[in-house]
Design a protein that fits this description.
The structure is a homodimer. Chain A is α/β, with parallel strands linked by helices and about 400 residues long. Chain A folds into 2 domains: about 150 residues, Creatine Amidinohydrolase, Chain A, domain 1 (3-Layer(aba) Sandwich); about 230 residues, Creatine Amidinohydrolase (Alpha-Beta Complex), CATH 3.90.230. In chain A, the strands form 3 sheets. Chain A has a 6-stranded mixed β-sheet. In chain A, strand 3, helix 3 and strand 4 form a beta-alpha-beta unit. The longest helix of chain A has 24 residues. The first copy, chain A, is globular, with a radius of gyration of 22 Å. The model of chain A has no long low-confidence stretch (mean pLDDT about 95). Chains A and B meet through helix 5, helix 8 and strand 11 of A and helix 5, helix 8 and strand 11 of B.
């Protein structure tokens, strides 16, 4: 595996685009806690986000970002990041999970020593790995800084993928197709959900494609039996049964770039209501895909889908898709563009979406999805798995 | 699978102990965002923590907690929780990932409608799934409430396990032993890390034990080759080589209760420095285990270990263990008791620890660990996997 996964020029281009947004927002220093954003700009990778850590990006002077984390986790930086050693800073072990101090006390002090107190500092405010206490301690330790909300600043840059990122997503799409195939092969009456999950993980991670898959933002979701109408159930050791519909939503990740895929399987003779709904969903999916092209608003894609549903008297309240790409647990969505009414974001070439059509009815459900790349010509499905309800007898 | 996994009396006992702490702290309403704490009190389980959600616990009047989350995720509640339907409240889809509103606006409004504005409200402040913006919006929407820091309040209750919880951890220990065996079986020169990881996942989840394993707080960690001295590397498609030391740290979870285990494997003829270090670590582990009994301070356990290291001229800066149990990604630690200098917590029967001895040296490393239950008699290792460096030729 190269260290880091992309060319230095790719990281430079990412930094340039982030700095342009920082400049527009008047931000001198950007503090990032989302591990996907940290990875995006520096390559840093590791399961160290369960303790506080940041990447600090100075706006001016082309100064390299700083990685600031737990001292022991500096060891992951030379394996994964292009950052020079001197820009990889560790806080002492004595700051880990203590009630009388916080890693952000140390980090604030370090940033003060570098002259950042009194400057305008942007932080993320609604990410998973940056807590209210973390922000409070940073503020307390940098009393002369002006803190501004820079939530999603990097995520919006990430919404347009480079050719190298798209290549990763194509590899992920190949893994996720194999994982869905493994699920379909595994699901038989009497087989436990966890046995299918084990086969799915093996295909996601080791695959047949000749390269490793990474851990996915969401775990594989099996909507079957008692959980058939629940969108985010954890797997169990319940056994699959004959005459049961199972919806499966899963992702695969290559260098933490995701492709996600949902399909529905029926073991036995499928009920008419399932086949009827699936046909409408398929028609709606085609309408949405046909609407996806540069220059179109995100909301218009959902409207194309909804027109089909309306015609058939069906309803779906939740959004039908979102920007997807680089991610760590617990999510693979980028929290920027949503395919739903009122989202006025104009689609651009190299946006990537997970368009997910989950129909959770009274006591049963079905799902279908694709991971989609916007090209000049329109929507290209990166995932290539046969559509429609799969029937197994 | 029963719904929920434990008897109602178990949840009542947990609530009683949490309410006693709330009363002592003068907290009228406790808002929990840590999915482990939400699960602990209500049984609620699902991969829905990637959007904001809370469990609200009223202190007085024996009123059932409220689950407050995304409307579609109410569907997981009847599958996993003992909460009555009327206490499972969903915010509309139109609040999900929008820049102009936040789920906590809706939740604050809902709590105000129930009369909680003007009361004393405790929140977690340093958990993974409760952001600075979430707290800010709650405060803004409940302007007459007094917000107090209730971080770790429930975690401290969780530090003492019930017999039913210990039974889950024993099951997890059986899964994790199988997963370590799978790793050792898989690792051969020429095999990719991801192939070993696939085997590990299969054993963690489907196992041979007759019950499903759940997703683990940390992903499996393989410290090998270039990453031999890194404590938290992500797996790659690098191939194992002859004459290579590999440390493996992994967990297994049963009903989200963890047992974790680390061991070290050498393929080929092990170097003397590895065997010498392993012998000292083994002696230190025995000393630490011998020191673990009710009435002893956590810091004294580390001191017993350190005396052995000092005698041999070795050093380890990081803590040697922490309270372990119920957890969701990204952690299985409970963030309460640490086995390190200065931690004055007095060990009690039914505390559970992951005692982890990771020695990351210059360019190489080794690890050994056990998941340990404190009994009246002392330390009982729940994990039962042969110790020492495993050598494979």
């Amino acid at each position: 595996m190269p260290t880091p996964p992309f060319e230095k020029t790719e990281y430079e281009s990412r930094l340039r685009r982030v700095r342009a947004r920082m400049e527009a927002a008047g931000i001198d220093l950007l503090l990032l806690a989302d591990p996907a954003n940290m990875n995006y700009l520096t390559g840093y990778d590791g399961w160290s986000f369960y303790v506080p850590q940041l990447v600090a990006v100075p706006c001016q002077g082309n100064e390299d970002p700083l990685w600031l984390g737990r001292a022991m986790d500096r060891a992951q930086a030379p394996l994964t990041s292009w950052l020079p050693d001197a820009r990889v800073i560790g806080y002492p072990e004595s700051y880990v999970q203590r009630s009388d101090r916080h890693p952000m006390d140390w980090i604030a002090d370090h940033l003060k020593g570098r002259g950042w107190d009194g400057r305008r500092i942007g932080t993320e405010t609604d990410v998973y790995y940056f807590s209210p206490k973390a922000l409070e301690r940073l503020r307390a330790g940098l009393p002369n800084a002006e803190f501004v909300d820079a939530d999603l600043l990097v995520n919006w840059v990430r919404a347009v993928k480079s050719p190298a990122e798209i290549a990763c997503m194509r590899e992920a799409a190949s893994l996720v197709g194999g994982a869905m195939r493994a699920a379909f092969d595994a699901i038989e009456p009497g087989v436990r959900q966890c046995d299918a999950i084990a086969r799915i993980y093996a295909a996601q991670i080791a695959g047949e494609a000749g390269f490793a898959g990474d851990i996915t933002g969401l775990c594989p979701l099996i909507m079957s039996g008692r959980a058939a109408a629940a969108p985010h159930p954890m797997w169990t050791d319940d056994r699959f049964e004959r005459d049961q519909t199972t919806a499966i939503e899963l992702g695969a990740a290559r260098r933490h770039y995701h492709a996600s895929l949902a399909r529905t399987l029926h073991v036995g003779r499928p009920p008419q209501r399932l086949m009827d709904t699936a046909k409408i969903v398929e028609e709606g999916l085609e309408a949405a895909l046909a609407a996806m092209r540069p220059g179109v608003e995100a909301g218009a894609v959902e409207a194309a889908w909804r027109r089909v549903l309306d015609r058939h008297g069906l309803k779906k309240e939740s959004r039908i898709g979102y920007s997807i790409g680089l991610g760590y647990p617990p999510d693979w969505g980028e929290h920027t563009i949503s395919l739903r009414p009122g989202d006025a974001t104009v689609l651009e070439p190299c946006n990537t979406f997970h368009i997910i059509l989950g129909m959770w009815m009274e006591g049963w459900g079905m799902e279908t999805s694709e991971t989609v790349l916007i090209t000049e010509q329109g929507a290209e499905c990166l995932t290539r798995f046969p559509r429609g309800v799969h029937v197994k007898d």
